[in-house]
Amino acid sequence: MKKISRRNFLKAAGLAMAAVGLTACGSSSSSSTAASAGGAASAAPTSGPKMGGTLRFAYGSPIATPGYTPRASGNAAVFYLNLAYDNLFTYDVDGNRVPRLATEWVFDEAEPSITWTLREGVQFADGEPFNAEAVKANIEEYQANNRTEVANIASCEVIDDTHIKMVLAQVNSSTLESVGFFVYYMSPKAIANPSSLDAGTCGTGPFQLSEFENNAYAIYTRNDNYWEEGKPYLDSVEITVISEPTTMSTAFQAGEYDIISVGDMSPMIKQELTGAGIYIEERNTNGVGIETVGLIPNSAIDSPWADARVRRAMCYAIDMDAINAAFMMGTAQLTDQWAVPGAVTYNDELTHFTYNPERAKELLAEAGYADGFDTKINAISSLSDMMTAIGNMLTEVGIRCQINQVDAATQNQLMLEGTWEGLMPHYATVSPDLGLYMGRHLDANGAYYAPGIQHPEKEMELLEAIRGCVDETEKHELEKELQAAIYDAETGSCLFGRPLFINSASSFKYDYVIDDFSRMSFSASWDLSGCWLNL
Amino acid sequence: MENTKKKGLLDRLKSSRVLRVMFGRKIIVVCAVLILVMVLVAIFAPVIAPYDPNKDDLYNVLKGCSAEHWLGTDSNGRDVLSRIIYGARVSFTVGLVAVLISSVIGMALGLISGVAGGVVDSVIMRIMDAMMAVPMLILALFLGAILGQGLFNVCLAIGISMVPQYARITRGQVLSVRNADYVTAGTLCGASRVRNTLVHVFPNCLSANIVTMTASLGGAILAEANLSFLGMGISPPTASWGAMVSGGYKYLSNQPVIAIAPGIAIMIVVLCFNMCGDALRDALDPKLRGTLGNGSKKRRKATKGV
Amino acid sequence: MPNLLKMIGKRIVQSCITILLVTLFVFFLIQLVPGNPVANYLGASATPEQIEYYTHLYGYDRPVIVQYLSWIGGLFRGTMGQSISYQSEIADILLPRLMVTLSMVVPAFIIGTVTGVLLGIVSALNRGKWLDSVISFFANIGVSMPMFWLGMMGMLVLGLRLHWLPTSGYVPMERDFGQWLSHMIMPILVMSLGVNAGFLRLTRSSMLEVIRQDYVTTARAKGVPKNAIIMKHQLRNSLIPIVTVMGSRLGTMVGSTVLIENLFVIPGLGSVMMNGISSRDFMLVANGVLVISIFVALCNLMVDILYGIIDPRTR
Q: Are A230 and A378 in a shared domain?
């Protein structure tokens, strides 16, 4: 149980941010600007944080319920939740857990249970104290909303004001992460009166919601009750929802926003902003919350895709380097399995797929499709250019693809029911812990994609073994074995088709925005408690 | 007046006056020629286009204008000029098919409604009212979401959303001629109701509808562009001007030509159709007025379609 | 006058029937749209239990007809129902957004109508001259451009290149009127251009139609000054067809806010409808269409009243 004080965490993150600033701006003349901004972030002894001001942030994802946190699920919500609420722990720049509302925790495998020591002297925005009773009330509220994160908690025992024990239904190593990071604590008074959270917040965070228009904007103002002395420095934070990246970048460059979020799928915009040399790029480096995009065949429906050789043929027929060059300007980080290269669950030893149309044709012939077959790629409009290019590559080897453009809602439906015909994009969270993240797709009862793929015995047994395994090292070995079983180019079952690239996002900001810690701890988060504007 | 009305539409078009009025202005001649050229381009696209419009060149994307690629290449390295040339096919198909669908269904409903009267009339017209109470774009969006993407589905969505205007115009026309002498004469001569409708009533509804059809050709092409912008257009990789504009939006600051060029193509085609539609209306109008000038109610029907 | 009142009464009844039909039509049409509102709302991490729980919570597991009746019943009790994607009462979402949309549509409509009618008169009076050709030509270009394309061009030139106006976004009027105005100028101008061109063409043709009418010739023969003829006879009578299309024009404009609000990131009715459709929030979309159709019906009703006042023949 390694404890890291908040101050050390901030120092580490600040240094890392300076480094990111430097790499983002390359060796051009602008690096001095970035370095000075970074320097101010970590040291800043001369000027010190300036009080006041409004930070204007443009973001692509809306939130429906900024106040009632059990209904705010998904990674995209964290940017909002971070402002008004806190979780028990967060991550540092290396992906280690660091204290937030909890100062210490003990995972007891034998019982099994987790015992938390809570931070003292913390109050909610309405003046209610944050204590063990409040934690219990929140966990129960999350359970009432059927949130998977808290499903494994059998009961909560309040020991005293600052200690609470959560008894678990079964041993599952992912529970600590789920409960510690994904539950955001609301005032018990507000929980008793949930309508007060319709367009407002009541948490322990540095800001509280003051004005809200769903899918348009959210304005947060300073929480005078915040538990860190003297913070926050900003008066307010304005989040504007802009779903079109071009519009967002245009407005940012015109000075209408101080900081924006740009996805990897908009490489032109990223290149333009980086090329301008005056903006600072911030990017997640610890891999927590990272997602990938792949191409997944429906192997459950009776079609050529039910044959693993056909699925492998598809993987051989895709020229990822060409795709990367054309659509990601060569900047994409590629992966060949359910992990970011370098992660603890990444298997270095499996055979990679290479671009090999001849091998693809051989495999197709082996499977009895020497003359090829007709199939579809179901894709949303933002991916359709790339999918068109991939379709053309597949058509070259005989997998004749037609593009079926669908909207996001239809895509969700296809994932959920597993009824897509042919291929569709595969979105996966590839954080470590395959039992949790891959399990959502691989498990026969998984919510997404699962009904559209086969569930071979070998993979299912490995999944069960991983879930029941408490020893970290042993678990990682099993996870690597599962990677090989699915993703090996020679022998893999190719259940999830071809992973294409890692789809993360960067924040771009002006150099006067100091200490926002965007994307440091989690790929879609920030910490604005110590943020200030050096204007 | 009654005499001219009895003449078929073709006779009227043939009469030199209509053509003289219509093509009297040079700009209309230019527009008509432009449309003709565009139609020819669409038909002979494979011969004219310098490249295969769907051929990717992934190591040659988003290149600006050059001698090889006059209008540059797009996100997939495809030749923009070739895609615009092939895109003409989609635009004309959408225009024609959508207008055909809407006018056939609309005229049929209008005829039935006008001739049958009574309950049938009320039911049909109330449904048309309900459809018209929903803005066309939103209706087309709905239908697009239901039908899914694809060339024919887009035509169908746009076509259905334009049905009510034809139904209304046709019904108005039917009501205005229902009691005219020659229709009564037809009935007296023992012509069946269906025959009488088709032979005597229907031709008189055509001219007003043809004006609307010409005008709505442009509208349908714009509607396709709008649907594409909202992500409900024709499936890729088919080149469609609307999809090209919205796809090019991403690269507006780097390679604006990708979005600007197809936008100008849309503008020119729609402009030409609108100008010709106006000219045709002007040319036919003095004769139409004879049937419209005597009652404000009928005038409203006629102007609704404008 | 009693005739006018009777006519208005009849139109109100008709409008109510139409609106009822719209609700029926839209509600059942929506059921045909593929997609699941609950799955959409919960996102990729949802479990089947969660989906079942929310499906039941929002009543999507009831028969369609029951859902429809409970919606209509709710309307009479003053509730539009709950939006799943926005997690709140639908009236609370739609009404403020309708105001935003109207604050854009109404000025655009007024600007477009006034300039359109004026230019139309100028054009008609100069029929066949170069001024007429120039005006007609630009009017035609105005209606021939895809609205979102024009918006894109404006955004680039006026926003990014010249820095005269913000490229996008919205500031509530009550927070900062100047900011509101600077954000709204571009969308309003883009929207008004379409209306302007439409009314221009209409005014021109209707003026020309009236010029050839007998009473104008008579008035001229009687030696009434030309300007008096324009003002007294021509304009008044030319207005009739213009007034009749006003209602449907406003409806079309509300529809096209889907494009404009998406492009300029304005939190109005159009963008909420688009979000509703893409997130399959069926109740939100049905209510949105209801609001629009009531608005269109009200406009048409006002037009009918205006019409009755302008055109003495209907009295």
A: no
Tell me the two tokens of residue B98. 């959508």
Same domain, A388 and A440: yes
A299 & A434 share domain: yes
- Could you tell me if residue B260 is left (phi over 0), alpha (psi between -120 and 50 degrees) or otherwise beta? alpha
Higher per-residue confidence, B259 vs C244: B259
- Judge whether A340 and A280 are in contact, CB under 8 Å: no
- How many structural domains is chain A composed of? 3
* Beta strand extents in C81-231 (DSSP E only): 82-83, 88-89
A54 and A139 in a single domain? The answer is no
- Residue C52: closest C-alpha in chain A: A146
Per-residue pLDDT band for A12 (boundaries 50, 70, 90) equals very low
User: Given C137, C148, C293, which is nearest B134 (Cβ)?
Assistant: C293
Looking at residue C265, its pLDDT comes to 81
C 19-48 near A (Cβ less than 8 A): 34-36, 39-48
Q: Tell me the pLDDT of chain C averaged across its residues.
A: 81
Identify the sign of the CA torsion C257, C260, C266, C271.
Answer: positive
> Domain residues of chain C, as ranges?
11-90, 98-278
Find the residue in C nearest to A415 (Cα): C44
Question: Domain of A180?
Answer: 89-185
Burial of A425 (0-12, 13-18, 19+ CB in 10 A): buried
Query: Quick one: B21-305 is in which CATH superfamily?
Result: MetI-like (1.10.3720.10)
Tokens of B265: 């193509």
Which residues lie closer than 8 Å to C172 by C-beta, 6 or more apart?
Answer: C180
One-letter amino acid at C15 equals S
Determine contact: C128 vs chain A, CB below 8 A: no
- Cα–Cα dist A190/A68, whole Å: 9
Chain C residues within 8 A of A256 when measuring between CB atoms: 166-169
Question: Which of C7, C148, C149 to mutate: most B Cβ within 10 Å?
Answer: C149
Q: How far is CA C210 from CA A476, C57, C242, in A?
A: 86, 61, 13
A413/C35 Cβ within 8 A: yes
Chain C: residue nearest B244 by CA? C149
pLDDT at A290: 84
Is the whole model's pTM more than 0.80, yes or no?
no
A330 by Cβ neighbours in 10 Å (0-12 / 13-18 / 19+) ranks as exposed
Those residues with Cβ within 8 angstroms of residue B264's Cβ, 6 or more apart along the chain or in another chain: none
In a shared domain, residues A388 and A434: yes
A194 within some domain? no
CB contact under 8 A, C277 and B141: yes
Residue A498 half-sphere exposure toward CB, CA atoms < 13 A: 26
Burial of B48 (0-12, 13-18, 19+ CB in 10 A): middle
Does A473 fall in a domain?
Answer: yes
CATH number where A326 lies? 3.10.105.10
Cα–Cα nearest to C119, from C195, C186, C188, C197: C197
> Hey, is the C-beta of A201 within 8 angstroms of any chain B C-beta?
no
A11 and A101 together in one domain: no
Q: Do A355 and A424 fall within a single domain?
A: yes
Residues A343 and A476 in one domain: yes
User: What is the SS3 assignment for C1?
Assistant: coil
* Neighbour tally for C16: CB within 10 Å: 12
CATH architecture of C98-278: Orthogonal Bundle (1.10)
Q: For the segment C162-175, what is each residue's pLDDT rounded down to a tens digit? A: 778 877 778 788 77
Give, for A358, the enclosing helix (H) or strand (E). Answer: helix A357-366
